[in-house]
Amino acid sequence: MSSGQNERREMTGAEMVVQALKDNGVKHVFGYPGGAVLPIYDEIFQQDEVEHILVRHEQGAGHAAEGYARSTGKAGVLLVTSGPGATNAVTPLQDALMDSIPLVCLTGQVPTSLIGSDAFQECDTIGITRPCTKHNWLVKDVNDLAAIIHEAFHVATTGRPGPVVVDIPKDVQFAKGIYVPPQTAPRTSYQPKVQGDLDKIKAAVELMAGARKPIIYSGGGVINSGPEASHLLRELVDLTGFPITSTLMGLGAYPASGKNWMGMLGMHGTYEANMAMHDCDVMICIGARFDDRITGRLTAFSPNSKKIHIDIDPSSINKNVRTDVPIIGDVGRVLEDLVRLWRASAKADKKALHPWWEQIAKWRARDSLAYKMNHDVIMPQYAIQRLYALTKDMDTYITTEVGQHQMWAAQHYHFEKPNRWMTSGGLGTMGYGLPAALGVQIAHRDALVIDIAGDASVQMTMQEMSAAVQHEAPIKIFILNNQYMGMVRQWQQLLHGNRLSHSYTEAMPDFVKLAEAYGGHGIRCEKPDELDDAIKEMIAVKKPVIFDCRVATLANCFPMIPSGKAHNEMLLPDEATDEAVANAIDAKGRELV
Amino acid sequence: MNAQLQPTGSAYFIAKETEKPENHTLSVLVDNEPGVLARVIGLFSGRGYNIESLTVSETEHEKHLSRITIVTRGTPHVLEQIKHQLERIVPVHRVVDLTVRSQELGQERPMERELALVKVAGTGEARVEALRLADAFRASVIDANTEHFIFEITGKGSKLDQFIAIMKPLGLVEICRTGVAAMNRGPQGM
């Protein structure tokens, strides 16, 4: 990776930053200049190996780096200035922490002599970002700088991936010191366990071989582990014949066209996935963490199953749900052993699974994703279905914002490959999708990158449209515009007597004119029979597009596990009358989310 | 379905805690670098864990290692989480739950000691009584004039509590306690 001539030579801190980025294989940096990072920007100006993508707000840089990271499997890098630059990056840092996305955030800092003096654009970046990073460093000596940046990349990308911050005072950027190339010996206190315990894996194989009602529940850890892990997951499903469901973060690890695919599980998951989770006798959780949106009411979560949990983070084990066979290790490595041991010892008794599959077929027959088609108004589900139908054979990447549109996208857009689906799961950050799409497009110049957006979310980071135009990133922003914060409105209907407090956006920009103002292309579509042509136009335009898709304003996202209910107490679309919706959640739930 | 379980009416669950909270003493071996203590205590405040006592000092100068001793209170489930969450912190080398370890070794508790400095001011009978009691508690006088003593006392927390309580009516002015230092009995290291 490193060029030999640069090893151990003297250079300034700012030069070291750029050299260290090159030595860690960085091709793109998302950032925004400011006083405390000017020396680094000066170095960036004088080279062309590392391309800098200028955003319009540091939050945009962070989400773009996240999209870049999720779609490539490499670390996303952002460069921001001190004070407001750093604080604006906090939201994407926490987002990346919760979704285990490798980010390296370089922040400028006021000169070391001024730290603590309330200097202009000073903030305690390390203190502020400590709880929202995997680790962070303040560099006080230029001779430590190179080693710290190398370590930052190592920590961000290994073990359970996550965001890191390196805070670099301006005097350190100017100072001269000795550059050291990336070394292989990491610090002794950080050694993530990647290889699973073989005895535990054997116990898992035994449990799986005896299962009559098994289910595989996979998550974002499979994607993070790399393409090989997804490949092994498919192999495991084929070998065992087990049904498989996935979290929001794990979509694409197993193909949606696969015959064992049950759809997503959880609060807005399919009926068959949630019922199977509830009734199973053996659950194999692979790289997922029993999040509260997944489990429903914990005390009624899959009451009669033995649970196998594969995770690289020991703190995920037994955190929310008690596990019978915990396996700590990298999903890819563990699956390798698991598949090998299964081949050697267990023979899939697929006949024994027949009654289970018959039961699943009955649940499937409920068709829980069904909705009432309308010929005058575009139903949001229909919009996603048409978008899927018209883009599925292309090299497509999907990002989303947060809300109803995100759940509809997860339900109705079907993913065949990993790294094709970028969404804010853990933190639920509105405004994630547009900059994330920019990041994806920078990494995959010729791909079709679509941000499936909501009208409220997209306005949170709309300014990055300007960055997309500048960098000729032809992202497509497909807005399901219902003029409400749809998920907020849905919860107000469920929990608060349909009193729609501030969830209606009374002044909505003209998205077509807005697109044009930014130098992009705007499309509006209001009729179902015009939708296909409009989507085709969107795909054909070779510049950033804002697609204002006017959808039914009051559609609710179903199926749904109402708050406080178990997996087998789902509210299905055909049962969701106004009365059922109004009474779905009892009084106690109003205290909580 | 389990009919006796009451739904909370929310996607967040406040499960009834069936386990009883216990006091445990943790030893945490960390790299002695800036901010490491903030990482540890930030974890406790951020995740809502309790700190009953906290003691920190560098223990191996050449290796830049510090040892943090934390007395915390929680259910066994929470205590297991605390241990794993501490282990995630990059500069943390090892976390040992001394209380669990002592049980594994067939011992009742780890060895735990605390030091206190106790200032008592007064004259006459109270002053004589304070000195007499200090002697009974094996507290030593480290500073004195005709109107005050500073006692140094070492022992279990309960002994210190008792000593301080007794000194209260005898002119107690000021107390400083170190927090708990602890290790397990026996020849093995942590």
UniProtKB/TrEMBL annotation, chain A:
Its cofactor is thiamine diphosphate; Mg(2+). Its EC number is 2.2.1.6. It catalyses: 2 pyruvate + H(+) = (2S)-2-acetolactate + CO2. Keywords: Amino-acid biosynthesis, Branched-chain amino acid biosynthesis, FAD, Flavoprotein, Magnesium, Metal-binding, Thiamine pyrophosphate, Transferase. Residues 11-126 form the Thiamine pyrophosphate enzyme N-terminal TPP-binding domain. Residues 201-338 form the Thiamine pyrophosphate enzyme central domain. Coiled coil: none annotated. The keyword Calcium does not apply. Pathway: Amino-acid biosynthesis; L-valine biosynthesis; L-valine from pyruvate: step 1/4; Amino-acid biosynthesis; L-isoleucine biosynthesis; L-isoleucine from 2-oxobutanoate: step 1/4. Belongs to the TPP enzyme family. PANTHER family: ACETOLACTATE SYNTHASE CATALYTIC SUBUNIT, MITOCHONDRIAL, THIAMINE PYROPHOSPHATE ENZYMES. This is Acetolactate synthase. It comes from Mesorhizobium helmanticense. The lineage of its organism: Bacteria, Pseudomonadati, Pseudomonadota, Alphaproteobacteria, Hyphomicrobiales.
Automatic annotation (TrEMBL), chain B:
GO terms for biological process: isoleucine biosynthetic process; L-valine biosynthetic process. PROSITE patterns: ACT. It comes from the Bacteria. Gene3D superfamilies: 3.30.70.260, ACT-like. Chain A, domain 2 (3.30.70.1150). It catalyses: 2 pyruvate + H(+) = (2S)-2-acetolactate + CO2. One of its GO terms (molecular function) is acetolactate synthase activity. GO terms for cellular component: cytosol. The keyword Cytoplasm does not apply. Belongs to the acetolactate synthase small subunit family. Dimer of large and small chains. NCBIfam families: acolac_sm (TIGR00119), PRK11895.1 (NF008864). This is Acetolactate synthase small subunit.
